[in-house]
Specification:
With about 240 residues, the chain is mainly alpha-helical. About 70% of the residues lie in helices and about 5% in strands.
Length: about 240
């Protein structure tokens, strides 16, 4: 290949727009709409108009349309013939039960496999837990002494750190298919946040339960992490379902 051919491959075709900026724009629009879905500002059943969202976000309709198609796959929104996109209803009690059943099956399987790699896992899990504690502290600070509403960006970061704690264990299982399945569930975990009462959070309890899981891995007893993870998922399920 001569220099001219190499330059031709390296340079974008005349008039073509670079792919990366468009993808970054679409991802930014996706995140902006997702935040609206999860912060309670667009309740279930709300209409999501492409043109109106484009005006509000100051972008063209194309990245909005692409983001809505992507969000439809998460189950957070649905497309109704002749009516456009709407925010999906919250998960039903039956769907919540099935989701936590699936998470329990998947995450206990991951814990069993990760327990044999505890020496390598524990430092990573400590770091993931520390990030979760930091994000939770920021939420508590933004809520103030009287427990006022937190800024949703802090909540979003805290929820992401919470889920990353779980993913750290699942990665340590050494099973790529468990990890892929868990990552595919992340959208349903988003729906779980959508279902939860936005006026309250289970952040502090989750931090404490994660600390118990970490301590269980640190103990070297392969059964303790299983018990701790099952207890945590059962407690989250009760809180989301508003069961005492």
């Amino acid at each position: 290949m001569n220099g001219n051919e190499s330059s031709a491959l390296a340079a974008p075709a005349v008039g073509r727009k670079p792919v990366v900026p468009r993808r970054a724009l679409r991802d930014g629009v996706y995140d902006a709409i997702l935040e609206r879905l999860l912060d309670g500002s667009t309740p279930p059943g709300s209409s999501l108009g492409i043109d109106s969202l484009a005006r509000e976000l100051e972008v063209s309709p194309t990245p909005v349309r692409e983001a809505l198609v992507q969000l439809e796959h998460t189950g957070l929104i649905s497309r109704v013939a002749l009516k456009g996109y709407r925010v999906a209803p919250p998960l039903s009690p039956e769907q919540l039960a099935e989701l936590f059943d699936m998470r329990t099956i998947l995450e206990t399987a991951a814990v069993e496999r990760a327990a044999s790699r505890a020496d390598d896992l524990v430092p990573e899990l400590r770091a993931a837990h520390a990030r979760h504690v930091l994000r939770a502290h920021r939420v508590r600070k933004s809520r103030g002494a009287h427990g006022g509403p937190a800024d949703f960006s802090d909540l979003r970061e805290c929820f992401a750190a919470d889920w990353e704690f779980h993913l750290t264990i699942i990665r340590a299982s050494g099973n790529r298919f468990l990890l892929r399945t868990a990552e595919s569930l992340s959208a349903q975990v988003h729906r779980l946040r959508q279902t939860a009462d936005h006026g309250t959070t289970d952040i502090e309890r989750a931090v404490d339960e994660h600390a118990a899981i970490l301590a269980a891995f640190e103990s070297g007893d392969p059964q303790r992490p299983l018990v701790a993870m099952r207890g945590h998922l059962a407690a989250v399920a009760r809180r989301v379902s508003h069961i005492p």
